[in-house]
Write a structure and sequence with these properties.
The model is unreliable at 1-27 and 198-234 (pLDDT under 50). This protein has no helices and 14 strands. The chain has 234 residues and is an all-beta fold. It has strands at 4-5, 38-46, 53-60, 65-69, 75-80, 85-90, 95-99, 116-125, 128-137, 140-146, 152-158, 164-174, 189-190, 226-227.
Length: 234
């Protein structure tokens, strides 16, 4: 679960989450990441929000690649967990930035193997069967319904950062997703992130193959993973 699942999820979801969780199923645990390519449209609502916001999330490479699209095309967050790279894309400005990684980032759309799980039953969400789980973290408790192949179809309660919120899948579509979906759109300009360079620019993991950062800076577009109670900032 994340810092502010809803908050960050709109419009430029700093949504998402460089969790270190694995794909292997553990005893009495759901899969922590989708095991196949899938596109899910969620209604996401932080506690106290006037209404839910619709967010589209794309998963590929067994959950190692993820893209979260904010409502109305306002922006996206792309996460490459293998490269420990998160990119925030700002649609209106046609720019993107590489965000310095956070080891403890979480995403409400992915589960965390450090959480404690208890299976409580089964349900049907968005036309798919799922197992319901009671989840306990240091910050509180939550309930989620997860498909056998690791797709979170609903989640309600407190995330790992203590933010409250609710999400539910409205549509789920399985099928191959092109690699280009996890890259900034053609013609978008890379700008420097206010908090400094990503790891590959400091001699860490290989980067996206872009030239050095631009001198331009759109301001802080938000660098945290989305939390359940975090309304989006434009």
């Amino acid at each position: 679960m994340r810092p502010s699942l809803l908050s960050s999820a709109i419009p430029v979801l700093g949504l998402v989450a460089m969790t270190t969780g694995g794909q292997a199923q553990q005893p009495a645990h759901p899969l922590t990441m989708p095991s196949r390519d899938v596109t899910v449209t969620y209604d996401v609502e932080p506690d106290g929000a006037p209404a839910p916001q619709q967010v589209r999330v794309l998963f590929s490479a067994h959950g190692r690649l993820m893209r979260i699209d904010a409502p109305d095309g306002q922006g996206s967050t792309i996460m490459d967990r293998d490269r420990r790279l998160m990119q925030v894309v700002i649609g209106a400005a046609k720019v993107y930035m590489d965000v310095p990684e956070r080891e403890e980032q979480r995403s409400p759309f992915l589960l965390d193997p450090t959480m404690q799980y208890t299976a409580t039953g089964t349900a049907d969400v968005a036309g798919l069967p799922c197992t319901t789980w009671s989840i306990t973290t240091a910050s509180g408790s939550a309930h989620a319904c997860v498909t056998p192949d690791g797709v979170v179809l609903s989640e309600d309660g407190v995330d790992s950062q203590g933010a409250r919120g609710h999400l539910i899948a409205r549509s789920v579509s399985y099928g191959p997703i092109a690699a280009a979906a996890f890259q900034p759109p053609p013609g978008f300009t890379r700008v420097a992130h206010p908090e400094g360079p990503a790891s590959y620019e400091r001699g860490g993991a290989p980067g996206p193959g872009n030239a050095g950062p631009s001198d331009a800076g759109p301001g802080d577009a938000g660098s945290g993973a989305p939390a359940m109670g975090d309304p989006a900032h434009p």
